[in-house]
Amino acid sequence: MQCPVECGEGKQTREVVCYGTNTNTDPRRSCLQRDKPDTERSCQSRRTCYGTWFSGPWEKCNATCGSGYQNRDVVCIQNTGSGRFTIVSDYSCTWSDKPENVKPCQSEQACGPQWFMSNWGECSVTCGKGRKSRDIQCLDTYGVPSNRCDIRQKPTEVELCKQSPCTSQTVSDSGCRDRYSKCNLVVRRNLCDHVFYMNVCCSSCSRWKS
Q1: Which of 6, 137, 181, 183 could be joined to 204 by an S-S link, Cβ 3.0–4.6 Å?
Q2: Contact 185, 202 (CB under 8 A)
Q3: Rg (Cα) of the chain, in Å, rounded?
């Protein structure tokens, strides 16, 4: 008897009856229940079940305003017989038939003006400590400059940067020298980040930056 399912695991059943030798009694009473053979057993079809894609529900849009994305679970399942399914490797399903698990979405609420920033520029010095900057703009939904952004949330425009330490060779090659009599005071008060003092106390500030 073949396995009754088209693929995967199933069950085979059979009828088991008791035939008694005593015609004066019920034949069912002539057999012991503990000796009764099994009436069913598991079986495996020769044909392996192919996986089927199963898609879960879409999640909420991940954007609180404007455009965003929605996600959902997409898994490959396989029929193991008897109406049961199990999750298997995606390679058991046809990739070309896989449903999308991400799609764009639009929030019900439009976004107001937001801060946009460019990438950081290069460090202002080739050695030692310097500064780098970036452009910050407040733009509305249509990309038009606006003055309605929250100034308290404005990103930083300038930050410190550090290159490899300056050497005496680097200073002498650039013609860097002090042209101010109180450069030692400039260094002690951490004024070398200002362009003016960096120029008039070039040698002292370069040593400080290293």
Answers
A1: 183
A2: no
A3: 40
CB 114 within 8 A of CB 127: no
What residues contact 164, with CB distance under 8 A and at least 6 apart?
Answer: 127
Higher pLDDT: 149 or 180? It is 149
Of residues 9, 2, 4, the one with CA closest to residue 80: 9
Residue 43 burial (CB < 10 Å; 0-12/13-18/19+)?
Answer: middle
Q: Report d(CA 84, CA 82) in Å as an integer.
A: 6
89, pLDDT greater than 70? yes
One DSSP character per residue, 153-202 reads GPPPSEEEEE-SPP-HHHHHHTT--B-STTHHHHHHTT-TTSHHHHHHBH
Task: Determine the average pLDDT of the residues in 124-147.
Answer: 85
